[in-house]
Protein: NADH:flavin oxidoreductase
Amino acid sequence: MAATLTAEPLTLPCGVTVKNRFYKSAMNEALAGRDCAPTEAHVHLYRTWAQGGAGVLVTGNVMVDRTQLGEPGNVAVEDERDLAMLRRWAEAGTENGAHCWMQINHPGRQSPITINRHPLAPSAGKVDGEYGKFFAEPTELTHEQIHDIIRRFANTARIAKKAGFTGVEIHAAHGYLINQFLSPLDNRRTDEYGGSLENRARFLFDVFDAVRAVVGPNFPIAVKLNSSDVPIAIKVNERDGAPGGFNEEESIWVMKQLEKRGVDLIDISGGTYSKPVIQTNDGAAEDRRRGVYFTDFARRIKGELNVPIALTGGFRNATDMEHALGEGITQMIGIARPLALVLDLPNRIIRDGWQGSVDLPRVSTGIKPLDKAFGGILVISWFELQMHRIARGKRPNPRIGGMRALLFALKQHGPAALTPRRRKGRQ
Structure:
C-alpha cells in the first residue's frame, strides 16, 4: 500500500500549510541545564528529527516561569536572555521544510517538591493518591497572579515567534495548570475562574486570546487538550471521566469554543498524574493491547468540529496511520516515542513505502521490586536517554536496559529524577 494520505499537505485555519501529516508530539527532552536554558543538544536533536521528514515538530515542555518547572531539565522562556540559542534551536527544527512549534506550559501544583517547594494552583490542596507525597501543598492563585501567568504565556509565545519557531502549542492537558483550572476536582474557586464550565475554561480562553493578540492571525496556535482526565484504558465507560472531573462532554464544549476563537489544531490526549495514560512498562505488548489511543473519542467528535485534529498515541505502522486519516478521525498523525528509535520514520513511510512496525521495547531493570516502584519513571528516563544519545550524535540503542536508564536519570537530575513526572502515553 502506497502511503499517500500521510504525504498530503494540510492547510491550517490561519492559512499556513504544513508539508505532510506527521506531527511529532511533545516529549520532555530533559536537556536544559540548571539555568533552564536551551542548549546545543536541542539544536542537534531537532535538526536530526527535521531531516527525518515530519511536517511538524513540537518541542517538549517550555515553561513560562523558571521558578515553576514541571520536570527536571525543562527549558523556561520568560525573557529574551536565551534568544540566540532559541534561534539556533528554531532554525534547526525548521530545516527540510518542517514546522517547529514551541509547547508552552505552566505546571501549577504538578511541580515536584525536589525542584519547587512553592507551587501555585487554582485552589489549595495537594495532589491526590500515591503521588501526593512528591508535591508540596500549593498556594491558591490570586487574581494578580492569574493575570501575570496569562501575560507570561503571551510573552513566551512572542519570544518563540521572534526566535523563528513557526507556531506554539498551549498545553492544557495532563494535569498541568490549565487542566487544573478546567477540572472541578482541582478548581474549587468561587470567582469568575471557578464553578461553571464556562468559568473554569476562562483561564484557557484568556491565555489563548492573549497569545493570539501577540503572534497575530497568521501564526499557528495549537492546544493540547484532554478528552477527559481518565485515560480510556482504565475507564469502565469511555465517556466517564474522573468522578466529578473534566469529562468528554466538557472537552467537546471547550473544543468548540476554541474553534470559534480561531485555534489551528487540537492535539487530543488524556490522563493526569493521579490517572496516567501509561499503564505498564511492557512496550510493544501494551501497544498491541491498546491500539491507537483515543480513537473512540475522535470518532465521536468527527463531524462536530472543522478544526484539524492531531491524534497521538499508539501509531506504529503506516497501515494504521492511513486508516485513521482515511476515516477522517484525525488530520495529523501524532507520534513521539517511535521517533526516539526510528529517527526518519516519516521519510521511510512517505518516501520508501516502508510497511514495517515500530516495536517499543519492554523497559526493565531485571529486578521486580524496582520495576514496580519506578515503572513509569523507568520508561520516561529510558526515552530521555535515547534523546540524549541522539543529541550527542549517537544512534538510538534499543538494547539499553532499565537499570542503565535509572542510573542515567539519577546522574542527570539527582533525587528529582525519582519523583513522578506526568506519565505520558507511549506516543
